[in-house]
Amino acid sequence: MSIGSGVIVTVALHEIDSSPDAETGSECDNKSLKYCNCAVTAMITMPSNEESPQTNVATDNYSYFTAEEIVGPAPAEIDTRISEVLIEKGYTVEHATAIQEILNTIGIESIAIENMTGKPEEGVNCVISFPNGYTARDRRFNFTTEDGVLFWAGFLDEDLYDTDQGGYIQNYSDVHVPEKDVTSAEFAALITHAEPAIKAYLNYPDTANFKQLSYRVGRSDNLYQLSGSVQVQNGFGVKDTINFSVWFEKDGTKFQITAIVMDGVRVY
Q1: pLDDT, tens digit (0-9, with 9 covering 90-100), for 237-248
Q2: d(Cα 172, Cα 154) in Å, to the nearest integer?
Q3: Domains of the chain: residue spans and CATH
Q4: What is the CB-side half-sphere exposure of residue 69 using CA atoms within 13 A?
Q5: Angstrom distance (rounded) from CA 93 to CA 84
Q6: Which of 139, 158, 171, 239 qualifies as a cystine partner to 134, CB 3.0-4.6 A?
């Protein structure tokens, strides 16, 4: 039962000690009586929560604290995502928070560390990470620390931060990430263009046997590279395998050959 300010409680007193040293605390006290039965109505004043803020009367035995009132929404959370990851890997709080400040400046909001080449707080350590929720390998970026202090960060072939160049250089998002996707139709078209181009440089093109499973393709925006191998005979009928690469530039829907290399020799 909760007791607040100004609550009247009825107390039944069954035995009153009338000895000189006793404190009866009752208007029914009669020094000639050792025992008496009487009902005493006493005013017991309990401090309210307003009068004594340090005292909370729990209304639920399972509760561990009492909120006087809902003040409002909680303040915005302070971002610690990067520093938490770094501390878990072994960086000190001081170094981890300093690294987060630099990475936030260059547009990195979160990281998932793939690999480290050294120890966080000893010597040079290159940290390879996936930033901002990316999982594609061509989105990875690197930063390097010495004795826990970041001095360089980069993405692809671009510098993002370098203490030797004054610190901040550019944002992660400023670096152009080329298109890499190649459709099956584009792949087939590249092979169709490449094989007759390779045959044109063979001494005995009729003996050419292109290994279909050897083809590999790469793309950087409108530039494509198709690599493969072909088995071919020489004038003595001896068979050998030649490795080749053909570079293309795409203009609209058309592919134009820009270079051909056969066994390390550029022939076009």
Answers
A1: 999 999 999 999
A2: 8
A3: 1-58 (no CATH), 81-174 (no CATH), 184-266 (3.10.450)
A4: 5
A5: 9
A6: 139
C-alpha distances in Å from residue 28, one per residue of 43, 44, 165: 15, 17, 94
Statement: residue 134 has pLDDT above 60: yes
Judge whether 20 and 53 are in contact, CB under 8 Å.
no
pLDDT-derived band of residue 15, with 50, 70 and 90 as boundaries?
very low
Burial of residue 261, with CB atoms counted within 10 A of its CB: 0-12 exposed, 13-18 middle, 19 or more buried:
middle
Of 50 and 164, the structure prediction assigns the larger pLDDT to: 164
CA distance 11 to 9: 6
Q: How many residues does the chain have?
A: 268
| Distance from C-alpha of 146 to C-alpha of 31, rounded to nearest angstrom | 89
Reduced to 3 states (helix: H, G, I; strand: E, B; else coil), residue 182 is coil
Closest CA to 40 of 29, 48, 53: 29
The C-alpha atoms of residue 106 and residue 160 are separated, in whole angstroms, by 7
Query: Whole-prediction pTM value?
Result: 0.59
223-233/254-262 β-pairing: unpaired
What is the residue type of 151? F
Residue 119 DSSP label: B
